[in-house]
Amino acid sequence: MAFFDRFRTSVRKLEQEKDYPGLIGALGGEDPAIRADAARALCTLGVPALPVLLSALEDAGPAAQTRMAEALASVGTSSVPLHLALVLKASPALQASIAGAIAGRGDEMFEALLPALYHERPAIRRAAVIALQGMGRKAVLPLSEALHDGNPSVRKEAAAALARLRWAPDDLQEKVEFYYLQEDWAELAKLQGAAVPILIKPSLTRMPGYGASRHGRSGRFTTPGPSRHSSGR
């Protein structure tokens, strides 16, 4: 026990000295307790640790990356700010790894992420959409609400996340916007005349009546099948 206590004391010292590389080394180590201590320290230090942490996660092999992401998520709700900052700058593969680790923490993290969907900064709202993508079908309602966000990048991210879940709206006008956000011209072509108004607009302007309500929308899940957008359609 004294042996492991010595390493835990070392992690505390690394935190006090703001030794980010040292903490990253501990985060990637084999001992779960040491990883957990390093993760808590990094979450406490916050944004200043981000560049070194992001670089280490991107450079890590799949197994090490998973261990590190899971250790960060194990900190719980206090890790949400760091996770949101990470996913904004992460590669798609790392985003998926982080989202999977967050999903593994269950409802606690799910509930902690929801307020970020209504943050005043679009970047934070977009980060919340990315972080929720691993939550599966329980994330559909908040993600479908994000389709009506006032910022195009948030709407586009939400559409991509919902497509990965093989979900699509039932409402015709929402279908038009949904497929436009994904640049799925094949699906838009199937909608024929309904797609014309949005195709001639120079920007992602909402269709008339689109987004009038953030509640009560319906949608459907499709069965898996070949699609370049993984929408299962």
UniProtKB/TrEMBL annotation:
SMART domains per UniProt: EZ_HEAT (SM00567)
A molecular-function term among this protein's GO annotations: oxidoreductase activity
Skewed-composition ranges (Polar residues): 220-233
A Pfam match: HEAT_2
Domain of life: Archaea
Signal peptide stretch: none
Region (Disordered): 209-233
Name of the protein described by the UniProt record: HEAT repeat domain-containing protein
